[in-house]
Amino acid sequence: MDWTDLQHFLALAREGTLSAAARSLNVDHVTVARRVAALEASLSLRLVDRRPRSYELTEDGKRIAKIAAPMTDTAFAVERAVQASKSGIGGDITISAPPSLANVLIAPKLIRLRQQHPGIRIKLIGEKRTASLNRREADLALRLSRPSEPGLIARKIGYFEFALYGSPDYLKTTPPHAFAFIAYDSSMDDVPQQRWMMRFAASREIVLRSNDLENQAAAARTGMGLAALPKFLGEADPRLERHDIGGRPVGREVWLVVHRDLRRTPTVRIVAGFIEDCLA
Amino acid sequence: MDWTDLQHFLALAREGTLSAAARSLNVDHVTVARRVAALEASLSLRLVDRRPRSYELTEDGKRIAKIAAPMTDTAFAVERAVQASKSGIGGDITISAPPSLANVLIAPKLIRLRQQHPGIRIKLIGEKRTASLNRREADLALRLSRPSEPGLIARKIGYFEFALYGSPDYLKTTPPHAFAFIAYDSSMDDVPQQRWMMRFAASREIVLRSNDLENQAAAARTGMGLAALPKFLGEADPRLERHDIGGRPVGREVWLVVHRDLRRTPTVRIVAGFIEDCLA
DNA sequence: GTCCATTTGTGCGAATTCTCACAACAAGAT
DNA sequence: ATCTTGTTGTGAGAATTCGCACAAATGGAC
C-alpha cells in the first residue's frame, strides 16, 4: 500500500472535494483523483462513490478514513519535531493573527525583527479563520480568547479596549439620537464588542455591516456613522474621533499561542518575544 | 513532506540497512537510498550518517523515527481494516505455524479446504520465527504458548505429547544404558520437551543436534539414536517405534492466534475453523 | 435568461522515478 | 588463498507519474 495514496485519500476525506484536497496538498486535482483510484485498486475496495459533481465516501471509505486519520496527525507531529530540532536561528516562521492586529501592530514593526535576525523569514497571515497550529498552518498565533485545543500553550500578552469612532465632522454635526452605526455582519453578533455596541445603539439604525474591520474604519472616516474600533486603531488616526459613552468599556484579551512541540525552538522563542514587544 | 519518503525512512530505521529495508518494501535498495535522501532534503535535516558499509541514524534521525513510528502501526491497522471489510468469502489468507505442525497436520488437509472454498488462496509459512500478526505477516498463527501481545486473540485448540522414538531395529539391539540421543541445538535448551529428554538422557551421549524436527526424525529413522518427537509425527511412521519411559509425559498446548481486527472476517473464520478441525 | 465560479473528466507532453546491471568493498566460510 | 554472501554506490534506459490545457456540467448571482 502506497502511503502517498493514503495521504491523498485522507485529504479528500477531510476536504470533501477533489479540488479542495488538491489545494491543501498543492497538487493538481487530477492527481488526487488518480491516487484515490490507485488506492482503491491496490486495496480492491471501493472507497468513494463518483457522483456527477462530487465525490462521496462509501461506508468502507468512511471507516478506513477514520482508522487512517491518526497518520495525518503523526505526520504533522513529525514536521513540528523537525522544526523544533533546527537549533540555529533562522528559517520560515508563520504567524497567524486577526487582520487588524496583524496590520496595525505587527506588520509595521517587522522591519525591526528583520534587522536583528536577517535569517528569519516571516510569513504573516491575517485571517479571521483561526489557523490550526496542530496542522502547522502557523507556528505562532494571536487569538482574542484562550484556545482550548490540546497540545497548545497560550499566554496572555495584552489587552485592548474598544471605543466608538466617527469622523470629527460627523460627531460635530450629528445629535446623538440620530447616530447611525457600522457593525460586523450578523454572524458576529455574539462577539463582545458587537453586543456592547448593539446595546448602546438600541433602536438607532445600522447603516452598514461588514465583516472587515478596515472597511468599517474606512466607512466611519467618511462620516457614515459610528463604528466600534479598537483604540489602538482609532486613536492613531486623525480622521477619526472618539465618542465616549458611559458604562464599563469593552475590551478583548490577546493571547499568544504556540504548539508545545515548538515552545523551546530558538527561532520561535525570538519571534514570540518580538510579538510580545509589539503588544506591550 | 512526502509520506512515501517517510515510509522508506521508517523501514530503514527499523531494518537497519538499505538492503533489508528494500526487501521489506519490495523495492530496489537504490530507491530506499534516494527516498531517504529526498526526505532529508525536504526537511533540511540530516537523518543518517552514510558510513562506508552501513547507514546509521543520526540523533535527529532517531528522534524523528521514534515520533513517526506510529504511522507504520496505523498503516497496518488500515490494511487489517481493509481485509476485515471484505465481506465475501475468498482472497488470500496467510497462516504461520511451526514447521512440523504445518507439514504434518495442516498441509495434507488443505485440499479439503480448497474443495469447499475454491475462492480462498492459502499461503502457509512454516517458520520457527513467530510471524507478527500486527505487521500482518500472517492472518492466522499457530503457537505453542499463549502470546501476550496486545490486540491479539488466542484460543487453545489442541494439545499434543512428546515421546522418544527410534528405529525398531535400534530399539531391539541397543540396551537402554547405551542409548544415544538426538536433540535440538542448545539455543532450545529451555523448551519443555528438550528439558524433559535431557533429564532422561542424563549422562548418555547426544549424538546429533539439529534445529529442525524433520532432520531429527530422519536421523532417528536411520538408527542413530532416540529423538523426542510429537506423537502425531512418530505414531504415523512405521519406521519409528516409541520407547516409553516412566514419569509424567511432556506436552505442548496449541494456540490459534488471530488479530482482533480480523476476528469477525468471514474468510478468516472459515480458515480458523478448518485449522481447528485439523487439530481435533 | 446570462454570466461566473466551481467541480470533475480527458488527452498529451514533460518531468520524474524506478529498476536493472554492474562495480567496489568487506566479512566470513571453505 | 579463494569463494560466497551481503553491503552501498553509479549510470542508463524504461516505465510511471504529474501538470497543464481544455471540456462538460451544475448551481448561484444578477
TrEMBL record, chains A, B:
MF annotations from Gene Ontology: DNA-binding transcription factor activity; sequence-specific DNA binding
PROSITE patterns listed in its UniProt record: HTH_LYSR
GO biological process terms held by the UniProt record: DNA-templated transcription
Family matches, as InterPro entries: LysR-type_TF_proteobact-type (IPR058163), LysR_HTH_N (IPR000847), LysR_subst-bd (IPR005119), WH-like_DNA-bd_sf (IPR036388), WH_DNA-bd_sf (IPR036390)
Keyword Transcription tagged: yes
Keyword Cell inner membrane tagged: no
Function per UniProt: NodD regulates the expression of the nodABCFE genes which encode other nodulation proteins. NodD is also a negative regulator of its own expression. Binds flavonoids as inducers.
Family as reported in the entry's similarity comment: Belongs to the LysR transcriptional regulatory family.
Annotated protein name in UniProt: LysR family transcriptional regulator
Annotated organism of origin: Bradyrhizobium manausense
